[in-house]
Amino acid sequence: MKRVIAAVLLGIYLIVLLDLTLFQFPQPGAHANFVPFRSISRDLRHGGWEMIINFVGNLAVFLPLGLLPPTLSRRWCSPLRIALISLFLSALIESLQYLSGRRVADVDDLILNVLGGLLGYGVWIAMERLMLRPGARLS
Predict the structure, then answer these.
(1) What is the rounded CA–CA span in Å between residue 66 and residue 28?
(2) Is residue 106 packed enough to be buried (19+ CB in 10 Å), middle (13-18) or exposed (0-12)?
(3) Which has the closest alpha carbon to 67: 135, 13, 19?
(4) Closest CA to 33 of 107, 98, 88, 124
(5) Counting CB atoms within 10 angstroms of each CB, which of 28, 108, 109, 119 has the fewest?
(6) Is residue 139 domain-resident?
(7) What's the total number of domains in the chain?
(8) Is there a domain that residue 60 lies in?
């Protein structure tokens, strides 16, 4: 039952992610960033709401990608595999943003998205360890 719920959640997550990153909040005419760490350093220097949206948002939006695949299958239980699936999905999204011209393609989003996936995987590992502790209830 846990896998069925994880599969449904993964499907919903992917639909919402693609809608959010490809169709919502259009920014036509904005210029792509192909220089690593350019927008990250700019956001950290200036702070504010834009930094929260870009930095924290890109990390948070890929957290489920580190949590759900390992729940579906033990095959996905490695940081390398989570990093690769996060990189592939993020590269697909950034490429579609670039080709459509509706959103800003940014190499820094790739970096933050992969880190977000790995952060989610870290949360999954921590939850697994907590569940296996003596006295912990397995549900």
Answers:
(1) 31
(2) buried
(3) 13
(4) 107
(5) 28
(6) no
(7) 1
(8) yes
Give the pTM.
0.89
Task: Give dist(CA 99, CA 38) in Å, integer.
Answer: 21
* Structural domain harbouring 115: 2-27+35-132
Token output for 31: 């210029």
What would you measure as the largest C-alpha separation in the chain, in angstroms?
Answer: 57
The answer to whether the CB of 107 falls within 8 A of the CB of 33 is yes
At 92, the amino acid letter reads: L
Report whether 124 contacts 73 (CB < 8 A): no
Q: What number of residues does the chain have? A: 139
DSSP 8-class letter at 56? I
